[in-house]
Design a protein that fits this description.
This protein has helices at about 5-20, 55-60, 80-95, 110-125, 140-145, 160-170, 185-200, 230-235, 260-275, 290-295, 310-315, 330-335, 360-370, and strands at about 1-5, 45, 70-75, 100-105, 130, 150-155, 210-215, 225, 240-250, 275-280, 300-305, 320-325, 345, 375-380. By secondary structure, the protein is of the alpha/beta class. The strands form two sheets. A seven-stranded parallel beta sheet has the order 4-3-1-5-6-7-8, with helices on both faces. Strands 2, 9, 10, 11, 12, 13 and 14 form a seven-stranded parallel beta sheet that branches. It is globular.
Length: about 375
């Protein structure tokens, strides 16, 4: 069984299953794909409209590659409308790949968690392998205390995977990197369940743990780390149509309280002017008010993808350069777009942009996200006053 709460987690479940799950310890890491483009694709002077608005599902979704694998994917549906929409589209892809998808309104009301857990418990106890996308999720941690599987796989949930592996190696409790301060009352009540889940995520006698990731991580003792090279994405989508321009990728750094809103908007405006960007691909967690300001005040076209950016970019149309702040995509896009001639660039977050409430770890963590990325170009931030 697999448990996912975001589109990226479900995408990476598909990537993990595409290569064929292995029971052998020390499964060989997949070699990184060649990043040099074999040829320069045709470029478009204009910016064709992204096809997600009028997509024909039967034409756009890839045909099934294999017969059913026996993997049951449980979607623990969140409240956010954009996330739910992307999850429904990813669920279509999973079904077409032969998987069973079970949609759970796990946050549908006061009694929803208990009802969801009670309904899943019999299946979960019988599952020989459990695949999870977010080891920091309280929901997932609670489900892990019920599971009897001796094989646990953690698939990528973006840059959080780097922090998870680090905390697993240090033996510390699992805390998201952007959280600040001590434990509140809810944390103390949940502590026994979190500790139990933490033990199930630690390899031991008769218990195997695998991390399937595209992030640069060092495997803790006993943990199998398998490289995610986005083979399924590259086989199912593309090659993309390219425009001559640059596209900006949004982040949720403001929404998570890490970066100040005004500093973020100033940086977006400066990067757009410097690199000639006209489109802004919104992160699914970005607030509507912030996106209205980016579209209205900065004049950028806001694109709300209906699938994770790795699939949207692979399908195209997409700019010949994709520019982002430190985030997961600076690691995943070079892999998903290998051989397309697209440049992925990153602009570091200036420490002055951080909020007063940002975690003390934020600056080093964001710097590490950029510093460990492979196959990207780093671009400087040019203040608007100097343009």
């Amino acid at each position: 069984m697999a448990f996912v709460e975001s589109p990226v987690q479900l995408l990476n479940v598909l990537e993990w299953s595409y290569g064929g799950p292995s029971d052998a310890e020390g499964r060989a890491e997949a070699p990184a794909p060649e990043l040099a483009p074999p040829s320069v694709p045709a470029l478009y002077d204009g910016v064709p409209r992204q096809p997600y608005e009028t997509v024909d599902a039967e034409q756009e979704l890839p045909d099934p590659q294999r017969p059913p694998t026996g993997l049951t994917v449980v979607v623990l549906a969140p409240h956010d409308p954009m996330t739910r929409g992307q999850l429904r589209r990813m669920a279509e892809l999973a079904r077409r790949e032969g998987h069973t998808v079970r949609w759970e309104e796990a946050r549908g009301g006061a009694g929803a968690p208990a009802q969801t857990i009670a309904g899943l418990a019999p299946l979960l106890r019988r599952a020989s392998r459990v695949v999870i996308g977010d080891p920091f999720s309280r929901y997932v941690q609670l489900l892990l205390t019920i599971a009897r599987a001796r094989d646990v796989v953690v698939v990528d949930d973006g840059t959080a995977t780097m922090e998870f592996v680090s905390q697993l190696a240090l033996g510390t409790r699992l805390v998201r990197w952007h959280r600040r301060g001590g434990r509140g009352a809810r944390d103390l009540v949940f502590a026994p369940f979190a500790a139990s889940a933490r033990r199930r995520l630690t390899p031991g006698e008769g218990r195997r743990v695998e991390v399937f990731t595209s992030m640069p991580v060092q495997a803790p003792p006993g943990v199998t780390v398998t490289a995610n090279d986005f083979a399924w994405t590259r086989s199912a989508f593309g090659p993309p149509r390219l425009t001559r321009g640059t596209d900006l990728v949004g982040t949720s750094l403001v929404e998570t309280g890490v970066v100040d809103l005004d500093h973020y908007l100033t940086a977006v405006a400066s990067l757009a002017r410097t690199h000639g960007a006209t489109r802004y691909f919104a992160h699914r967690r970005e607030s509507t008010d912030k996106l209205h300001r980016i579209g209205g005040e900065l004049g950028l076209e806001i694109v709300r993808p209906d699938l994770p950016l790795e699939l949207i970019a692979r399908r195209g149309p997409i700019g010949r350069m994709i520019l982002s702040f430190p985030s997961t995509v600076v690691h995943t896009l070079p892999l998903a777009l290998a051989g397309t001639g697209i440049t992925v660039a990153v602009c570091d977050v200036d420490p002055a942009w951080l909020t007063e409430t940002a975690s003390p770890r934020a600056e080093d963590f964001l710097s590490g996200v950029t510093g460990t990325a492979r196959g990207i170009r780093r671009v400087p931030y040019v203040p608007a006053s100097t343009l």
